[in-house]
Give the backbone structure.
Amino acid sequence: MQTLDLHELKADEAIKCFLNEYENYQKTREAFRLVHGYGSSGEGGKIMRRVRQILQDNSDKLKYSYGEDIDGNPGYTIIYPNQKMAPFTDLLAQEILGFCEVSKVQGKILSKFRKHGDSNIIRTLKNLEKHKMIKAGSKGIHKTWTKL
């Protein structure tokens, strides 16, 4: 079984690498071990939490087994890719979904992800809404977004 080791990368780099490599493994439907580490906080690291959220969001496209269920080690996951992941499993969409676990006003979202550009952020929000992954609301005069 091949191993993809992400735990030495920064979270954004790790997720991008995982998404790219998943496509390669999916083409051959080859299972692989994803080493994401557990994080130094003792509560699970950013990479592990984000990878697991992606896996849960795409559970109809793949199967997976957490390391702690296999041998007690939460620092890796075995992934069995079957189909391509959802069309909005991209880095910006995943970051926005993670940020909007609790309702956020649009201004905060634009500020947090400003490096991506306002038009790209708004387009991603609308696409996520179209695919029923996030919902729009309001808080006073401000538009809000919340992950479903």
Q: What stands out?
A: The chain is about 45% helix and 20% strand.
